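Quick illustration, no need to memorize.
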Amino acid sequence: GVFFDGTGNNLANAVVTEQCRHDDLQLVGERTLQEVMDYCQRHGFSDSNGDGYFTQAPDGSYGNAPSNVARLYGLYRDDTDQPLAADAESAVVRIYLEGIGTSSGEADSLYGQITGRGDTGIQARVRQS
């Protein structure tokens, strides 16, 4: 199965900021909380009213939760780590493609999102698939 995420969505980027979207940050120790707060702020999250909860998330793939496409990708069977039986007639492989305008671990490309061109554009993703 090929799972092509939507424009501005990127599973890897959403995962690295997952804890920034949790309401249970008060359950961790003070040192861990400060590390999480610093990490999230470096990725564009902010606490606009000082209550310890992030009330503003960045636009783009780091501020998004994993999309439905990403969730389906996680549920899809993948046989790539299984030895293929000699009499097997088929196998299932899953492939995830980042959304237009995004690259894992990189800043989002507004140009790519708007135009669908460049290293994160439509043609680049088709070649990647």
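The chain has a mean pLDDT of 90.
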